[in-house]
Specification:
Elements lengths: L8 H13 L4 E2 L2 E2 L2 H14 L4 H9 L2 H4 L4 H8 L1 H10 L8 H9 L2 H15 L5 H13 L8 H4 L3
Antiparallel strand pairs: 1-2
Helix pairs in contact: 1-3, 2-3, 2-8, 3-6, 3-8, 5-6, 7-9, 8-9
Length: 156
């Protein structure tokens, strides 16, 4: 039996790895893995993203911050493009101001869309009141209106 969904290898692998790594973690009352799944789903539904590398990066976007996985491991398992996106999405504990981190992400449109979907998901699930203003300011910085060109949405 052939693969009904060609090109899903990295995406399937990202789902399996993130599910394993986030096992036992929670987001509110739900398993944590639901959060990256909602982020990827929002990319598909709101921005018509079909690029499996972008969706894999969305699924993996918290693994560096929340687990022992490193960027070199992501690069070895998923390649440079996905590793670069995950790296850009990772807020390092290096003292960089949050708005500078967001400004850097904003210069990469597809990564910015992942972060935008991440923030929207956080805001829709009762964030700490102290984070609401920060998330809303970041969303304004990451605002993108209009439809993405097909070459930026398309399956790779």
């Amino acid at each position: 039996m052939g693969n009904e969904f060609p090109g899903t290898g990295k995406l399937d692998q990202a789902i399996q790895l993130a599910s394993k790594l986030h096992s036992g973690q929670s987001y509110g009352t739900l398993p944590y893995i639901f959060h990256p799944f909602r982020v990827a789903t929002r990319l598909i539904e709101d921005y018509l993203i079909e690029d499996h590398d972008v969706l894999a990066a969305a699924i993996l976007h918290d693994v560096i911050e929340d687990t022992d996985v490193t960027i070199p491991l992501i690069m070895a398992d998923f390649g440079t493009r996905i590793a670069q996106m995950v790296h850009l999405l990772t807020k390092e504990d290096d003292g960089e101001p949050y708005q500078k981190y967001i400004s850097h992400i904003a210069s990469h449109r597809l990564v910015g869309l992942i972060k935008r979907c991440d923030l929207l998901d956080h805001l829709s699930h009762a964030p700490k009141p102290s984070l609401i203003g920060r998330y809303e300011a970041a969303l304004r910085k990451l605002e993108y209106t209009g439809r993405l060109p097909k070459h930026e949405r398309g399956r790779t």
